[in-house]
Amino acid sequence: MTNWRDYEAGLRRRGSLTLWVTPEALAGWRAPRRKTRGGQAQYSDLAIETALTLGCVFAMRLRQTEGLLHSLLDLMGLKVPVPDHTTLSRRAQKWEPSARRNPPLPDGPLHVLVDSTGLKVYGAGQWLEQKHGARSRRTWRKLHLAVDAKSGAIIAHGLTDQKTDDPSQVAPLLDQIDGEIDQFTADGAYDGKPTYRSILQHSATANIVIPPRSTAVESGDTGPPGQRDKHIAAIASDGRLKWQAAAGYGKRALIETAIGRYKGLIGLRLRARSFPAQQTEVAIGCIVLNRMLACGRPESIRRQVTQA
Question: Transposase DDE domain: which residues (predicted)?
Fold first, then answer.
């Protein structure tokens, strides 16, 4: 590791409890008055986001989040109202992240890594189902992530039910990315023509690195072979391991690291009950992770070992 001192300081900053409320934030704490018919919102999206972010960072339920924010504002001597837990629950179902919350993309084309993982939601557990024959309501949500290989930041995300297949979420993830893609890397679950089609529609010159299935065969289309056919031919000629080394497939480990970071810091399960609120919870979790990553990230190089 070449930046151990800076990385160590960044890890300490991640645990620093500092709440800084700017005059602009105080001015925008209350929602602007509506000029149309309907109920008048008391709190702005900024106030709701602030409360939900604190709850995400400290893994608190909405009532405890309300109490934490109330005590922090009291200690700071700020006389602003605090959203109650009922308001947070209701507004979380309609909150949408603004463009300013997206991490800045690095200069030049991107190397995008994509993968998905499962998150638990509430319901009866397996023990209750086996012991008492109760019908389990436990389900899963699938969290789909797109990560920039250079910075490690989450640049796109999505949440679906457990039955949604991974290839169908490639286009929605790419729609959230404004930059040009130089390379797209994913595991074999994304193999197939629809995935290649979605990527090339976004970036016509993108290099796609997806391992074909063991039963994959070349398409047999007339004309020059496509990228997928070239992968199949290379694996048949040199073997899968040599193809992975030549194609740079090892970079995919970085998306596994990002998923492990999400589950380790944000959690293995979703706290919200409704699906729109769960989408908000995931969006804020990704924002929190990117802010933590901005505090410090290890920079390492492979050590060269020479034999005498």
Answer: 13-123
